[in-house]
Amino acid sequence: MGTIVVKFGGPAIATPEKIQLVAQRVIEEKQRGLHVVVVISSMTTIRRELRQFAADISDEPSKREMDVLIATGTQMASALLAIAIQERGVKATSLAGWQAGVTTNQQHRNARVERVDTSRIVNHLEQDEIVIVAGFQGVDDKGDITTLGKGGSETTAVALAVALGADHVDIYTNVDGIYTADPNVVKSARKLKELSYDEMLELSNLGAHIIHPRAVELAKKFEMPVIVRSSIVDVEGTLLKGDVEVEKNLIVRGVAYEADVIRLTIGYDSYEAASLAEIFSILAENSINVDIIVQAVIDGVKPTISFTIAKEEFAEALRVLESSKLSLGFSFADFEVGLAKVSIVGSGMVSNPGVAARMFDRLRKEHIAVKMVSTSEIKVSVVVPQEAMVQAANALHDEFHLAERVAIG
After folding, report:
1. Do residues 288 and 379 both lie within one domain?
2. Rounded to the nearest 5°, which phi and psi values hold at 152?
3. Tell me: the pLDDT tens digits for 244-259?
4. Residue 169 has what pLDDT?
5. Within 8-62, where are the H helices?
6. Which of 173, 207, 237 is the last residue of a domain?
7. Which of 135, 152, 173 is the last residue of a domain?
8. What's the rounded Cα separation, in Å, for the pair 139 and 102?
9. CA-to-CA distance for 121 and 206, rounded, in angstroms?
10. Range in 4-13, 323-332, 371-380 the model is least confident about
11. Which domain holds residue 369?
12. Looking at the structure, do residues 24 and 155 belong to the same domain, yes or no?
């Protein structure tokens, strides 16, 4: 008998009625003759209330206790789904992360899965039960509850699938698959049948918040097929796998964007004083993620290093830089807000030169200023004024004909 792992997010289980719908869908998978393991996120309202309770008690609650607290929300959701399944006459058992054998490192609030012992899950499956696992959590070697941070439930689902040798993972979301762009912004966007792990990883990192990069990385490492599909309607989703059938002439496969990008610039009196390693080591030690980096060294001009960060990390980045100014040796720091990042992604770009030039030319024709650029083998990203973000996304989607259904060949 085959095994699948399915994951449902908070919106899919937000009400008793929605939990009932999820229960029915899970049972239908079971009735196809499969072992079914369900990974659940916590209900958004419950998670918010738990955090507010902690905030009302303490300005700085400990990370350990916050992990214990937040983990209960996911456990509540998994128990409720188990009850709904049992009410339909089907055997089901809910398990907390530690009961499901998920062991992590000791980094509270952002732990990483280190190993999975599936023996208890397998025992329940062999008793013909549906197993519901509280996602987003595990336990470290000290026996303390940990949570996995952003994308934790998706990462849990993929980790369990790998450990169980599952056929595939189904990630149920509020969209019915992966589109060539966000259909709420680009009206001509269309759903893709297949996408490679690398393409999905780039899109996820570039602002397409459908499946977290950590889950994609894990799926790619162990070649675990992942299907992104709708929790609302029963339609075919998008399959993520290693090698995909490339649509003929479709060099670019998707457009992604990210708002609220901030550019920080650090200046030095001399090139000898500038140290990229020292700057980014200090930022990394403080868990500040840096994206596009540009170093300018021009004769007769003071050297600068510019990089982009997310809006929510801006205040912390300024604090870290200011406190480390003497050791880093920079003479000034400046910043620019009101920026966005727009990117094109496609594995076909590797063997097709000139894609970046075509992108830049279209943005020029649209009178959109390009402030920074970053490239890889399968993506090109540009930083543009935020008010031009939607215009740029639509223009690039049109430029590379992503709305057209083209033949496979």
Report:
1. yes
2. -65, -40
3. 765 555 789 999 999 9
4. 98
5. 16-30, 44-57
6. 173
7. 173
8. 6
9. 35
10. 323-332
11. 254-399
12. yes
The reply to whether 249 falls in a domain is no
Question: What mean pLDDT is reported for the chain?
Answer: 92
Q: What is the pLDDT of residue 405?
A: 63
CA distance 326 to 346: 43
Provide the residue type at 344 as one letter: I
Q: Does residue 255 contact residue 241 with C-beta atoms inside 8 Å?
A: no
Torsion over CA of 175, 178, 181 and 185, rounded to 10 degrees?
A: 0
What's the pLDDT score for residue 249? 55
Q: Using CA atoms, how far apart are residues 318 and 322, in angstroms rounded to an integer? A: 6
Tell me the DSSP string of 92-148.
EEEE-TTTTTEEE-S-TTS--EEEE--HHHHHHHHTT-EEEEE-SEEE-TTS-EEE-
Say if pTM beats, i.e. exceeds, 0.90. Answer: no
47-50: Cβ within 8 A, 24+ apart: 47/10, 47/73
Q: Among 210, 160, 155, 216, which Cα is nearest to 180's? A: 210
Q: Which of 289, 281, 292 is nearest to 317 (CA)?
A: 289
Distance CA 75, CA 72 (A): 5
Question: CA nearest 249: which of 406, 379, 398, 403?
Answer: 406
Are 396 and 345 within 8 A, CB to CB? no
Domain membership of residue 405 (yes or no) is no
CATH number of the CATH domain containing 18: 3.40.1160.10
